[in-house]
Amino acid sequence: MRDVLLEKIELLRQRMVNMGLEFGLDHPDVLEYSIQIDQLHNELNQIDHSLSKAGNRKKAYRFYLMENNAHFA
Length: 73
Fold this sequence. Notes:
By secondary structure, the protein is mainly alpha-helical. Helix content is 66%, strand content 11%. Strand 1 and strand 2 (69-72) form a beta hairpin. The chain is flat, with a radius of gyration of 14 Å. It starts with a helix and ends with a strand.
């Protein structure tokens, strides 16, 4: 579930950046992407918090951007 959230966040981020470059950062669609990303980050934080309360260690994650592709490790 966590990995799926990370992938969604990165996809939305890429779309937001592209839209922002084309239409400006104050365009309503860019702001909507930002809101969606914030909501997904909140979900990710809740998952991480639940795991830490349960005594499970958080799975460390990293992502790498390479020519408009995101790679999670």
